[in-house]
Every structure is written in C-alpha cells, then in structure tokens.
C-alpha cells in the first residue's frame, strides 16, 4: 500500500542506484512479515525507472515456480526482452552452448548470466536489478544453496545487482554467514524497529478499514473504525503483515461484527510469535466449520477441499479442482465462501486458480499441535487425489485423444488437440499421490486394495492411451520414473504389469517421444509376445505390422533409462547395499541415482572442471571418490552431496583410476603424470611421497585384499608392487609385456597379480617374487583392455578392444577353460563378474551389453540393446540381479538379469564380422569370409548354407575369391596362409603357406584359373600355381605399406595392387616387373582395386572416401574422383557390362555409380548396421552382394531403371495406402514392401523422369526409421532388429538372425487410426 514501508523502500532505491553498493541485497524475515509485498513494490518502482532486469517469484508446491532450475532461464528471457545488447550476447553464448538452459546450476549462472552480461556491458557499473522472491519456497534446498553460492561468488564481477528475499532458513542463512559488505548486504525484516513496522501496519489497517466502510454496506457506528480498534489490531499483528492482511479479508464479509470479534480476543503477554496468527486462523476456520451452523458432511467436504488445495502438485483452476474432487464448481464456491480470508478464489469465472494466500496457512492446518480440531492430514488429500486421478483417467482416456491426423509426421510437425489440463494433471501426478496415500498406516487395508484394484483395471485397459497423453504433452521423459515410483507400493500382480509397462517405455522411449501414432504402429508390434502389454493390446490393434524374427529373443531387459548427464558417462558403480548408482561423466559431474526408480537422489555433485574418468563407493557406502582429468580426486558425502573436504590435488596429469582401501581409510589414484598417490581420507593428505618409478602414464591401480600393498600398470610396459606404508617398491618391476599395460588386479587371496596388455596377452605373476607363474595366456590378435577376477580367484577374465573377444583362463593350469565368446561387433570396453561368479557381462563399442555363462562360454540372453553410443562402463548390483551401464550417449541404464527369456538358438551363420564376399560363376551361390575364421557358402535365393563351414584357418579370413569355373574357392587369412577349397564338397584342396607373421590381406584368381595372386601385410605380392601351390615368381616388391588388394587384368597379363602407401601399382604377371609408374592421387590407404571388364580402366577405392578411375595405358585419371561416401571406401566392383561401379563403405552404405558420369544412379543402399567391408556383382549383373561388420551378407537388386526401360510402369508407393500390395502376405518370401518380386519397378514422375519405385522409401539402420520420399515417418524398427531387417532393394539377408515383416494389415499416414480394432476387425 502506498505510504507503507517508505523508509525501507527508500533504502532499496538508494541501493539500486548506487553503483558502489553491494551487488546482492538479501531481505529476510519470518513468514508473513511482508517480504513478497516489498519485492513486488520494488519491481514496480524499478520498472518505472527502467532498472528492472527481471523477476522470479517462487511459490511452494507450484510445479513451475518451485523449481530452482527454472529461475535463471526465466531471468535470462526477461533480460533478453529488456536489453538488445544482452540479447545479442546471449545468442552468441547459446550458439556455443545450445543446452545452457538445461546445464547444471553453476553452469547456468556462468552461461546465462555472467558471460552474456560481461559481453554486453564490459567494464560497466550495474544499472539493472534482478529480483528473486521467496527462495525458501523452492523444493530443493541443496540446489538453492548451490545457486546462491554461485551468484554471490560471481556478483562482484558481473554488471548487475540481485535483490533476494526469503525466510531465514539455515541453508540460505549459511551463504550469508560472513559479513562481506562489498559483496552482499543482509537486512532482517523482523528486526527493523518495531515502531516503524507498527506504523506501517497501522496505516495499512486504517486505510483498508476506511475502504471497507466505503464499499461494503453495513450498519456502521459513527466512529467506525475506532482508533482503539486500529491500535488493537496493530498490536495483535505485531511484526506480521500477513496477520493484518488476513484480518482485513476476514472482516470484509461482516465488518462491524467481525471487527468486534477479532479485537475482543484476549492477548496473552509473551505468547509465541506464531500464536497471534494461529488464533486468527482458528477464528476463521471456527466459523467455516462450526458444528452449530454446519452439517457434518459439510464440514467433511470443507476439509476435503482444503486438503486437496494444500496437496495438489500445482495450483488448479477452479474448474479443474472441481473435476478432481468430483464436486461442482458452485458447491466448491459455496464451501469456500467463508474462507476468502485465507483462500484465493477467482471472483468472476471458473478458469482462475484456487490457492492459499500465504504458506503459513498450510503450515498451520497440517500441524496437529497448532490446528488441533482443524488439523488436516495431507495423506487424506493425497488419497482423494489419487482416487480422483484414476477415475479421471478411466473416464477420459481414449485412443487418439491427441487427435493427430497423420502418422507420417512427428507430434511437433502437425497440429493436435490440446489435452485438457485436468487430464494432463491426472496422468502426470497419480503416482505421486498414490505413493503418499499408501504410506504405512495411512489407509485401512481394504481402502488400499480398492485403490490398487481400480488402478490396475485402468492401466490394463488404458496404459497406451496414458502414454499418448505424455507424448502429446512432451512429458515422456518422466514416464519411466512415474511407473517405477508406483512400483514401490503395489501388489505382486500389478507389479508384473508395471514392470512390463516400464520395459515398453524404456525400450521404445525415442519413438514414443517423437510420435504418438507410432506408440501403436511401431512400438506396440515390436515387443515380446510374452509381455503383458502385448497380451492386453495386440488383440485390439490388428492392423499393425507383425515382426517375424528368427534367432532373436524379443524380451527386453532394460529396467531404467536414466538421462541426466549431458555428455558421455565414463564410469558407473553400485553402492555396497545396491540401493544407489554413482556415475561419472565427461560433463564434469558425478551423479547419484536411486537404483530402483532412476530418480536423482541428490543434485549433481559439481566441482570437477574436466571429465570425470572414475568413480568408486567407499566400503560403507558413505562416500564416493571421483578422479578427473582436472588432476584432482574429490570425496563426496553420499547423503548431502557435499564435498567432504577440499579436493585432493597434487597430480600433474589426468587421473585414470581411483580405489578405496578395504578398510575405507585410504584412497589411491593413478595418473598420467606417471605417479601413484595414497591419500588419507580423514587428513586429506598424502600418507607417503608420490610413488614414482614408472616411465609412462599409470593406467590402473589396485589394493591387495589385505590393504598392505598396491599394484600398478603403466604405459612403460611394467608392473610394480608397492608397500602402502613405506611408499616404495617391494620387488623388482615385473617385465615381459611388449605393449602398454591397461589393467592390473590382485587375485582375491592376494597370491597372484594378473595383467592385461596391448601385446594381446594376459600374464599371471607371483605377487611375492614377481616371477611369471604361467606362460602368457594368448589366443588374441589385439590389445587387452580390461581384466577381472571372480571372488574365489579361480579364473581370469580378460577383454580385447580390437579382436572383439573375451577369454576366461584357469589360474591353476595354463589353459583356457572355455573358448572365447564371440559375437561382438567393435571393441569390448568394459567387463564385470556377477557376485556369484556364474556370469560375465561385457559392454562394447557396438552399444550392446552381453551376458555369458562363465562355465560354458554361452550367452545366457540376447544382447541388451538400447544405448546409442559406446558402453564405457558396466557393473553388477551386489545381489547380482541387475546390471548398470554408462554410455557415450550420456545415459545410465539399469538392466534386469532375472527377466531374460531363454536364449533362442541363432540360425547358422557367421558369428563375427564379414570381411569378404564373392559370387560363384553361376551366380546361384555366394562365398563369404569372416573374423570367425570360417568360409561359408550360401544359396542366393534361400539364404541357406549349401555346405558345412570351411574351417581350418587359425586367424580371421580377410579375403575370398572364386575360380572362373566355379569349382574352387581361395581364402586368405591373418594366419599367414592361402587355402584352396573344393566348392562342392568343402574339402581343403591346397594350403599355400607364406609366413605365420604375415597376414594375407587379399587373394584373386587369374581369368583362366591357373594362377592365384595374394597381397600381404609384409608389403609383397605373390603369384602361385593354382594346381601345385608353388610360387611362380619371386615376391613382387615396391609398395611401402601393406597390400590391401590385388586383381588380375581380364586377359591375365597384368596384376594391379592397392596399398597402405596410398598408391596403385601395375605389374607384368609374367615377369613380376612394374609396367608403369605408381598411380598416385589418393591421400590415404588404397583398400580396393579392380579392372573394368574390357581391361581399359582400373578403379581404386581408398580410406580418403573417394573412388578413382585410371586409364590403364597412360596411368592418368579419366574423371574426377567419385565422392559421396562419408567414411572410408573398403570395396568396389564393376558391373559385368562395365557401366556401373558398386562400392561399400565404413558409412554402412552401398552405393552404385555411373562410370561415364561419375554420378550415383540410385539412392544409397542401406540396411547394414556396421561398416560394409566387401561388395560384388553377380555374373549377370542383376544382384549385388555386400558383407559387413554386422555379421550379415545382404543381396540387393542390381537392376538399374533407365528412361528407355521397357519394364512395366507402376504407380509410386502412396504413403496413405491402407492396403499395401498383397504380394507381401508371405513375409518369409517377401519381407518388406520395397523388396518386390518384380526385379525392375519404375515410376513416372511429373517431370517425365523414370525412377525406381523402391527409391520412394529409405531405411536408416542407425536411427531405425523407415522414411518416405519426403522424410515421412513410415515405421520405426527396434534396435535389436535393425541389423537384420530387409532394406530398399534388399532381396535377402544372410546371417545368424533374420527379421521380416508382415505388412498385410498395416495402415499408416492419414488412415493410421484404422489400426485400432477394439472389436477384432481388421483390414485384411
């Protein structure tokens, strides 16, 4: 009110204008002291003089107003509207950090406030003020502490001022504990001289009473209001403006009578501060719930409505509150009519919000010792609201509630119906109200069971419709947490359904977020038939795709999808009791999660200034240690999230490894500065001098089981053992490894040390003598990154990042107890033993987690898919029931070990990457060579193996070739041999040995089949007699790098070769001499060379992403390089007529080029989920075969349409076609609509150009989407199927797993709603 608080407002005006005054002004005071009124008045006055930068008024219980994370983005938006200079600077910052609004709080302060302000107003005094009111009303005290600390710390260097108000709560008061007049100024509102406050309150009361007399009709005495009444009310209010406000609201209804009542309350001297307010609230509630004037049911209704107002998660409109309560708006108004003094009710319409005027009212009625007969138990409010939410969902949820017109566009790309706010509220908050309502002793058993029974009935019938609401309102990211939270309170029967529901949400989250229609069209058909969701909903949705998967289990195990980090998750760990998960990330934070619900336990642990590479729980779970690239170790309290002490600093390099001692008193850290440090947790300092001796970075450290010794492994190829107390080596360095040492560990009994190295060996050492006790455990061709012991020390587990295998060795005898598990795609990055030693889990660069039986080496369940990046770290829970994984996709996931269905036996096929494919001369069979050391022969029509696998190679098979007459197969291997096989029987005919140390990278037959040429890692080319196996020529030398490709000219007189030295060389096949200068132009490895069918040209493909064409006679390039691939080009082949070149690349695509124009003639052929290592045309040119690291061979139609084509002309595929061609009713024969039985389908476009209709759609095997010609969303494919699905032009997929689709009934586009068949009808 004008004229009140004038002295204080003058002080604030002076502070705001004085550039030399403190940058932060904290006004604090007890509840009801008038802080918010002062803040609003200050905002008004600052706005008048153009000094208000922005404001944020926090409100407890209001979802958008009690979240600390919303404060700074809101202020930044206000500032941007206010200041063009700031707006421009902010845009520059957001270009650099587009996710700044979602960063952790400290980074928000830096990137949204400090940095843009300093850019906009460099070296300028502050002229603007930001106002933040009611800091104590925010829901997260720890977050508020963090934002306050950061704002105070940056304020002296930032050209703006902050006006803050709050109650003097400890977590806020602590940030202003020390007097810093140059930084901040604190004023306690309730300590202002009482006479000043009383004068303001007296003026307020007097003016309000005069206004009441003027506007409210009553039988007023002449001297109303009397000075004695004003004085009495002023005295009763004391220092509380809220008392004066509430009293005026109360008096307004019956002025004379109520003023008399309130002034006649007896005042007790020395009463507690809250007593006057309590008496006021008691007086108001006493009238509203007086048994003499109200029926019992009316009093009960009043309490119910008040309980709802106090427990809703965000203030509700009167209309919505009415629906939540099941009480008419008129009835609500009537019930609250006598409570206008404490409850705000919209006066004119039902669309205004209903709320308490002040938080003190809620404090009063929910504290039984204060409110007594008027006490309201919040749990009763939550019970009512839980029941109401369930009822509303039951009544309101239905199919296509969002009224989305087309399935071909995302939610954000088309209009949709607005979800009514009460439905959105019910869908979002039923778990919150349910969990509070079902707290122990809050409800009778029959009430609990009734509530849960109602919930189960609704979810079983309307779960998908509930998800549709979350999709339409962009709240899908909350869905899993909502389900998992409710799981903590339900019975077993409902728990089973909820677990399946959560699996559905987590495994299909991306598609659910993107498109509501595809919840039904794509996500629903992708799940396992054993899922409760499938059993409930498949019968009601018959016009959706049907997946036919062979060799692939369909059950998913992903329990939680935890998304909070903003960069790669480097390390994860379970707490000792399994209740929590810690994660460390490249976003520089450590986070702690509830292992059951996935919710944040505390806000991110912020302090590190670089990547967090390692996290570990202390043995008692009280602390987390983290090691970072910022060269510090930090120790965090797991309860408060606070740092226990100052960072442990001293290292001069990145910290790669941290570990607690068995008794939890010490931490060791390994660093890139070549040292190990031992830290005393209590003292926070080194117990000894840094352990020096290594000549390279220290990659791994571990304590011995008794905590007396430390073992370390380093880039210097040595292992060292140290005494913890003395800080010195106790035995000589352990030497023998020929590569970097990545991992070291003690056996559980402390007797042995095991080490893993990039020299591809695992070694076992005597921990006392340092002697190697077993011969090196080999069996690998690439580096070993990680090793681990089970608890009993009987076995060693090791992983390799390059040969993609895992080995288990016996520590008592020098042998592997099981064969290396295969099936990996790229590098194995992390491995863990289950606590019972029965299982091993591994995380890989192919984004999967795999679980193996340690005794048999068999996979116990299908690969766990869902991550979209490298899996950096995995760990088992202490009870072995769950696995956690941290990934480069910035997420942490939790997987359930118990729900894995029995592994389905895979079909026959390669178990590892396919490096080479070739057609036999008749074109009916394909030969493939793989990293699994086998050669296989397949039927091109059925995809079945024609003969048993050709085995004998002891290393991966790099290359295969077929003799011109189709009777023999040649294979070149990493074992240094070329082997010749009978193509009909599979018998080995001949073995050509070069050297065990040299890998055979490529082989080729001469056109007449009498000779074989091979290229090797020893940089030579050799020529062999195909009948006798004898070398015909001396090795052809000249290349300065590995020879990756060799080929005979069509007339057999020359050999062309491509090498790692970036050149192509041409040799006389009779003399072995070079016939011309090397063909140069490539800037990287030449991976493949081929002759054109007429022998006039050579084509070469390179890691420089290009294909080049050379004139054989002149050695000159005949055209510009063929450019289009986004990664290395590994293989190329000419079509039989020489008109086209096909290429396979590391970008996972196959491309077809016109040799005359150098342009691509069709869209890239997609479907492979890994690099394409080999391509080949069939002899008649109608088919293209490709082999990939995804372990599959794909056959594509090679027929290219042209404008002169006489092929039948068919209309293009229509995206809203409700009846795809009937040819697709046999999914095993025609697995996808683009794989049509007609080999040449063309379509006439408006410009007269004739295109292949199969180019109308495309398949992105990485994202998993089938797209239409304009990027329309046709169908989403789940991750486990993507590498095995037929793509455009794809005729056949050959592999250990296959997936086909029955699209007979599939409806999409604008007809998508016909997918819903609640009464069992269908479109087929």
TrEMBL record:
PANTHER family, sorted: WD REPEAT DOMAIN 5B, WD40 REPEAT PROTEIN
Source organism superkingdom: Eukaryota
Pfam families to which the protein is assigned, alphabetical: NPHP3_N (PF24883), WD40 (PF00400)
Keyword 4Fe-4S belongs to the record: no
Gene3D superfamilies, per database record: P-loop containing nucleotide triphosphate hydrolases (3.40.50.300), YVTN repeat-like/Quinoprotein amine dehydrogenase (2.130.10.10)
First and last residues of every WD repeat: 562-603, 605-646, 648-689, 691-732, 734-775, 821-862, 864-905, 907-948, 950-991, 993-1034, 1036-1077, 1079-1120, 1122-1163, 1165-1197
GO cellular component, one term: transferase complex
Protein name as annotated: NACHT domain-containing protein
Keywords: Repeat, WD repeat
Signal peptide bounds: none
SMART domains: WD40
Domain called NACHT: residue spans: 23-168
Organism: Ceriporiopsis subvermispora (strain B)
